[in-house]
Amino acid sequence: MLFLKRIKNNLPILLLLLFIILPIKPTLAQTPSAIYLLTVEGTINPITAQYIVDGITEAENNQVECIIIQMDTPGGLDNSMRKIIKEMLNTPIPVIIYVAPQGARAASAGAFITLAANIAAMAPGTNIGAAHPVAMGEGQIDEETKSKIVNDASAYIKSIAGRRNRNVEIAEKFVRESISITEQEALENNIIEFVADSMDDLIFMIDGVKVTTSQGDKKLTTEGKEIIEYNMSVTDLFLHTLTDPNIAYILLFLGMYGILGEFSNPGALFPGIFGSICLILAFVSFQMIPINFAGIILIVAGLILFIVEIYTPTFGILTMGGIASLTLGSFMLTKDLAPFLQVSSGVIITMIVATGIFFIFAVTKGMKIQWRKPISGKESMTGMVGTARTVLNPDGQVFIHGETWQAVTSNGTPIKKGEKVVDISLEGLR
Questions:
Q1: Is it the case that residue 265 has pLDDT exceeding 90?
Q2: Which residues are designated catalytic?
């Protein structure tokens, strides 16, 4: 009752507040929408594709004015590229591709994605093209299959260019002749719409431009709009780093070192845990990179040879075999892939040399330990010099290693008391 009484007493104030608040709602709804900014740097892979798809979905949910994707890529995987383009062509939100900063490129898959944009722009000192398909699997492909792949890619890029009213002939040359052109050549040949020095210049240039989306024509209003950066999550950034073949290769070797360390020192735990984590991350990475599994098999075979060497020393024979297997496997691992998906020769040589030096050092130490004269036990007395305490004819006593021993001469020749003797073997206490 007291609560209702208070409401009744303050009713005029509540009505006044309601009168003020209600007109505010339409004003909030009419607040100018923002511009989403996505940044793509590096290869086009499943992580990149999911990042762009999620960004477009988020932009649709928030009904933003447009999406700008700043891109610098050497290319990437066909499936990931097509996933991105499919999303771009079917979204009602205008998508602008901006090849930047200066020195950036939109090569291979990047050229396809740029052509699929509603508006394409490039910064000075950038280039686009070189979209000829390359091998993305195990081994070499025959000429007929290669021709089919080229024809498929050619038809796809022509379809995209035609959809966006861009130069179909130049687009086809990106694929068939692997040409690459500068930003000015791209502008002159109707591959892009603008050359922009900066993001501010680009936003100024596209203001008022009419584009066609999946839901019809739309006139862009970008002046004064807030730019919201849509960044990758920490998880996606980590996984994107793993798609670097050099990182994956180094993780593979770190994993091998960890496993070998655990086998060498059973119960140490840390080397085994560290190695297992590195190996798992390496294989997760290799799931996102089309590698040659023959190379993986050879690398694993090298690891097995090293483990066997630890338990059955062969004076370096298995170690040399392991190094040879690692070397062959490493160079075969990404041999038939595009250059940006290959493991650097420098990284391979560095890791192989480091591994070779480590195991040669370990084997050498092992051999020295095996050849070293024992310092305890009966084996340690072999070769020691002593003195005959009595006449040995052939039996008698000798003083060796601070103790008196029963002894017998090796060939039956008598030895006089006080003469030097050498222990050549020990049987029991004689």
A1: no
A2: 108, 148
pLDDT digits (tens, 9 = 90+) for 319-346: 788 888 888 888 888 766 667 677 888 8
3-state secondary structure the chain: CHHHHHHHHCHHHHHHHHHHHCCHHHHHHCCCCCEEEEEEECCECHHHHHHHHHHHHHHHHHCCCEEEEEEEECCECHHHHHHHHHHHHHCCCCEEEEECCCCCEEECHHHHHHHCCCEEEECCCCEEECCCCCCCCCCCCCHHHHHHHHHHHHHHHHHHHHHCCCCHHHHHHHHHCCCEEEHHHHHHCCCCCEECCCHHHHHHHHCCCEEEECCEEEECCCCCCCEEECCCCHHHHHHHHHCCHHHHHHHHHHHHHHHHHHHHCCCCCHHHHHHHHHHHHHHHHHHCCCCCHHHHHHHHHHHHHHHHHHHCCCCCHHHHHHHHHHHHHHHHHCCCCCHHHCCCHHHHHHHHHHHHHHHHHHHHHHHHHHHCCCCCCHHHHCCCEEEECCCECCEEEEEECCEEEEEECCCCCCECCCCEEECCCCCCCC
How far, in Å, CA of 421 to CA of 409, rounded? 9
Looking only at the bridges linking them, the beta strands covering 105-107 and 180-182 are: unpaired
Strand partners, 179: none
SS3 216: strand
CB atoms within 10 A of CB 190: 16
> Do 115 and 161 touch, CB atoms closer than 8 A?
yes
User: 289 pLDDT exceeds 50?
Assistant: yes
CA 149 to chain centre: 26
Cis preceding-peptide flag for 101 (omega within 30 of 0): yes
Quick: pLDDT tens for 380-404: 677 788 888 888 888 888 888 778 8
Pair of tokens at residue 9: 């007493």
**For residue 420, what are the β-bridge partners?**
387
